[in-house]
Amino acid sequence: MNANMLDIERLSELAGEVGEEDLDMVLNLFLDEAEEVIERISKRMEDEDFAKATHFLRSGALNIGFSGLASAAGAADDLPPDRRGEAAASLTAVLLETRRVVGSTVGFAA
């Protein structure tokens, strides 16, 4: 497992707050929403919409312990407009890796 992809401490805290079953639901819901946001990012967006999308990804990922995705969203937010096409590809790759890592982590499913 890529140690930088997940904040296991935060995931454990969240599991304690909502329970394992609900945690699986929360993680899957966020991953699905993140996929939709990244799909929107892959299309041309106004600066404000792009900033909102990357902020949603970064803050949501930090909140549930997806540190790799949060980092990638932060990096995407810093891209100049002419390089934003790269953001969707990079975020998609990180999202797929996050799904894989979460799915292989004992106690969490994605």
Walk me through what this model shows.
This protein has 110 residues and is mainly alpha-helical. 75% of the residues lie in helices and 0% in strands. It contains 5 helices and no strands. Helix 1 (8-18) packs across helix 2 (20-41), helix 2 (20-41) runs antiparallel to helix 3 (47-64) and helix 4 packs antiparallel against helix 5. The chain is elongated, with a radius of gyration of 14 Å. The chain starts with 7 loop residues before the first helix and ends in a 6-residue tail after the last helix. The mean pLDDT is 89.
Write the layout of secondary structure elements.
Layout: H1 8-18, H2 20-41, H3 47-64, H4 67-77, H5 85-104
Helix pairs in contact: 1-2, 2-3, 2-5, 3-4, 4-5
Which features would summarize this protein structure in a list?
110 residues; mainly alpha
Characterize the overall form. Answer: elongated
The total count of helices amounts to 5
Distance between the termini: 15 Å
Tell me the major beta sheet: none
Strand tally: 0
Order of helices and strands: HHHHH
* Helix content, binned percent: over 70%
The average pLDDT score comes to 89
| DSSP strand content | under 5%
pLDDT < 50 runs, ≥5 residues: none
Radius of gyration: 14 Å
Please state the structural category.
mainly alpha
